[in-house]
Amino acid sequence: MQTTVTGVLSRAVGRTLLFTTLGLGVLAGCGEPSEDEAVAISLVDRFDEATVTGAPEAVEPPAPIEWDFGEAAGDEASENDDGILGWRALHGIDGLRVRDGRLVGETGETPLLVVKGLEDPDPSDFFHSLEIEMRVSEGTRLGVEFEGATELDEEEEEEIVEAARDREFLGFNRDLSPGDDLQTYRITSADASFNTSVPLRRLRHIVIRPTEAEDATFEIASMRVVSLKEHLATVPSGVGWHGLGDVFRETIVARAPERIAFDLSLPSRPFLDLSIGTFDHGPVTFAVEVDGEEGHEPLLRRTVSRAQEWQTVPVDLKEYADREVTLTLALHSEHPGTIGFWGAPVLRNRGGELPTEKTSSAARNAVVGAEQEPPQGVILIVADTLRRDQFQPFGYERPNAPNLTRLAREGALFRDAIAQGSWTKVSVSSLITSLY
Fold first, then answer.
1. Which among 282, 199, 285, 284 has a CA at the least distance from the CA of 246?
2. Sorting pLDDT into bands at 50, 70 and 90, what band is 341?
């Protein structure tokens, strides 16, 4: 196999630095094989061609969790022992009060607000997003942290303050747009510093750092927490990226008792590469069926009762090789509307071959010229948590990386690349898949 090193990609976000060498031939520019010779056919890509039957009636979403200071009693409500609608200054905030339907205050060192969250959270539900409508006069970062304690005592509050002092980032963070106008900031798992799957039971208290700047003013008009169940109740069946246990897959979302049928020409040695799972506790049955020349055939029936966990369930299709079939993904539950995830369903062919044509693309020709054949292999080198300012290719005085320095010198060094996220699991998966 021919391999060509074409460059070095560096990426420094937080404390993560990635070095990559790529040969681009397999990823771009090779000819497309016919379907019966294809190595893989993604059912996600075929969803628009599928037939969906058995859709349940619309599911009633859970009640919203929100605070609106326009509803606070009085035009000049001030903080008391119970706070204001459950909100109070935890540290570094002066003059907390409601004025003209907004919670306002001035910031000092490590400004923190705390609000009582959910008293009786659904044990099977998870955090999806937080939307806060606010204005700040100065600062660059909004931070949010969740606390699972039913009540916060003085010692626990001191620990929260000390942790916020020591860390630039809280659990969830968004860039601020300071100014005179209200902005709506939406915080999701993509804004997490580490954990992306947060059960609602962790939201008994919500800690907010409205800005990291001292001597700033802020105004909060409203805040709303959207649970995963509330979000999914509004999402139609179809394709999306969904995570179970912090593992995200391109997923076909279905609601029992839906049946999703695909008309396919199976290759010579076919099998269905598949993962299944659900975010809710309780039995959900996943079934894979084939309707071919000899009628209906069940191939898989698996009941999942454990939430937040992918189960890998490959399905052998060799008995139907080289035939036209209708492949059906069916979901069953005692409760219509129960959601199931068909994770990254791909029809694969053990007898398929990768394309070998050394054709190139117009985009690649514009960069390297048409006279150079595209490489046929890929080499990916990833170094995680490697500080840019301590690394020779970026000017560090000690010769601590001679080979990568030569690679940077003879290839291409990217000094201003932007990462998909600030931590490993998000950045590396995006790097490997070329997807958000």
1. 199
2. very high
User: Using one digit for the tens of pLDDT, what is the confidence trace for 125-164?
Assistant: 889 999 999 999 999 999 999 999 989 999 999 999 999 9
Query: 3-state class of 266 per DSSP?
Result: coil
The answer to whether the CB of 269 falls within 8 A of the CB of 318 is yes
Cα–Cα distance, 108 to 94 (Å, whole number): 8
Closest CA to 42 of 180, 299, 178, 239: 239
Residue with structure tokens 């399905």?
315
Q: Give the CB-side neighbour count of residue 238, counting CA atoms within 13 A.
A: 6
Partners of 272 in the beta sheet? Answer: 315, 347
Let me know: does 143 contact 170? Beta carbons within 8 Å. Answer: yes
Asked if 96 and 79 count as a contact pair (C-beta separation under 8 A), the reply is yes
236/260 Cα distance (integer angstroms): 13
The rounded distance, in Å, linking the Cα atoms of 112 and 167 is 13
Nearest of 10, 426, 66, 20 to residue 248 by alpha carbon: 426
DSSP of 370-405: TTSPPPS--------S--GGG-GGGT-SS---HHHH
Beta bridge pairs of residue 273: 346
| N- to C-terminal Cα separation, the chain | 30
d(CA 266, CA 37): 10
- pLDDT level of residue 93 (50, 70, 90 thresholds): very high
**Mean of per-residue pLDDT scores for the chain:** 83
Are the CB atoms for 8 and 21 separated by under 8 Å?
yes
Q: What angle do CA 238, 240, 244 make, to 5 degrees?
A: 115
Whole-angstrom distance, CA of residue 124 vs CA of residue 199: 8
* pLDDT at site 73: 52
Please say whether the beta carbons of 249 and 242 come within 8 A. Answer: yes
- Rounded CA separation 111/256 (Å): 47
Phi, psi of 366 (to 5 degrees): -65, -25
For the chain, how big is the Rg over CA atoms in Å?
A: 26
